[in-house]
Amino acid sequence: MLQADSFEHLIECPLIASPTLQHHEYQAQGIPFHVWVQGECDPDWPRLLQDFTAFSEEQLSLFGGFPVADYHFINQILPYSHYHGVEHTNSTVITLGPAQLLMTEVLYKELLGVSCHELFHTWNIKSIRPAELLPYDYTQEQYFRTCYIAEGITTYYGEYLLARSGVRTAEQYFQELNTVLRKHYEDDGRFNLSLADASVDLWLDGYKNGVPDRKVSVYYKGALVALLLDLALRQLSKHQRSLDNVLRRLWLEFGKPGVGYTEDDYIRLVEEVAGRPMRQYFDSFIYGTASLEEPLTKALHFVGCTLLQEENVSAAEGVFGFKTILKNERTEVTNILPHSPAAAALTVDDEIIAVNGQRVQMNLQVLLSTGAPSYELSVFRQSRLLTLTLAADPTRRFWPKVTIAKRADATPEQQISFKQWLKQDF
Questions:
Q1: How many domains does the chain have?
Q2: For residue 331, is it within any domain?
Q3: DSSP state of 113
Q4: In a domain, 155, yes or no
């Protein structure tokens, strides 16, 4: 018989009951880890267990202890495209699909990323908890300003530890970092709301679109400022200390004894690990909206890397500042950059049917790339046919492509620093 000690214990113990459930177990530092898979898929179990063991060992070494006696990865592999993961006390429920593509490069990469991320949550949020969430009140929203720690740092480490454990190559890790950069720089909310304020804002809309361009992502910007802090701490101490030390102290001083931490506690630990005041970092990137380009470029230089910026080659995005999606052969506007030429003419959900009298059929970029100073667009807006003028601004470009790459002129010292950070050769 299964019996829960409390309501919280009950909802923290998800399960799947199925005669087709697949199960394998591995050990990491003597702790049993269980991988459960439900769905019409054929996992490569030797490869999967080897990779899972590697990142589990890396996480256990980082923290020096585990909050629970065992752990369960509960995977619902679906027949259609999907991606989600939720952390629990000693388990995670992951939904992923389509099932037939599970072991392809694209979907297996997602399985590794979400699994490493959710395991990290066993410490960071399930044990190391903000004071506002201890105890958790299930009868109302629980607002807190440190989700950039709970989710931002976890997003950083979820991919970083896959590289540090050898599961991902440095090049694969940079591909994931570049995805985070792209999503951050596509979001104009980075100019409008700080990470701390965006943490509170999560309760307003969760994963759904809220007020356009209002808030920054605690996941993506949170991961980038965690990267920035990690490299800063490493540079200050010549790799003797890092963000690892901050997390280990959070675990030992707050997570392990079950005490909630405050914003001031986190600032104190960061400054003690840094051995110097870090107010500028917090004021600029946690409580302010300062740009990340220059500080990231300087921090990456320490490990022989750099931040590259290239023009967006898409005419719609780079010249006019709007994004579209092809849906059932319809070209629909999905995102518009404030203060761009598109903002003066288009609205989200407009269906673009013609440019200068020529029908749009998967050729929007070609039609907008003639170099003309303006274009006449025919659009359907809420079933009304409208004719609009889209005028280019020759002095401005939008949505640049921002990526991280190794420097071709990296010095031997920088290459050594790279290896100390990523545990891989430059």
A1: 3
A2: yes
A3: H
A4: yes
pTM across the whole model: 0.94
CA distance 349 to 335: 9
Name the token pair of 262: 């405050």
Element holding 196 (H helix, E strand): helix 195-205
Range of 220's domain? Answer: 147-310+409-422
Q: By C-alpha distance, which of 149, 242, 131, 235 is closest to 195?
A: 149
Token duo for residue 102: 């599970």
Question: Would you state the pLDDT for residue 203?
Answer: 75
Q: pLDDT tens across 210-226, in order?
A: 788 889 999 999 999 99
DSSP E strands, 229-336: 305-310, 322-327, 330-336
Cis bond upstream, residue 32 (ω within 30)? no
- Between CA 88 and CA 263 the distance in angstroms is 23
Q: What share of the chain is helix, strand, coil (3-state, %, to 5)?
A: 40, 20, 35
Tokens of 360: 């749009």
Are residues 111 and 75 both part of a single domain?
yes
Domain co-membership, 322 together with 286: no
- 178 neighbors 308 (Cβ within 8 angstroms): no
The one-letter code for the residue type at 385 is: L
In this model, does residue 172 exceed pLDDT 80?
A: yes
- The full DSSP string for 27-81 is EETTEEEEEEEESS----HHHHHHHHHHHHHHHHHHHTS-SSS-EEEEEEE-SS-
Q: Is residue 192 part of a domain?
A: yes
Q: For residue 311, give both structure tokens.
A: 């023009």
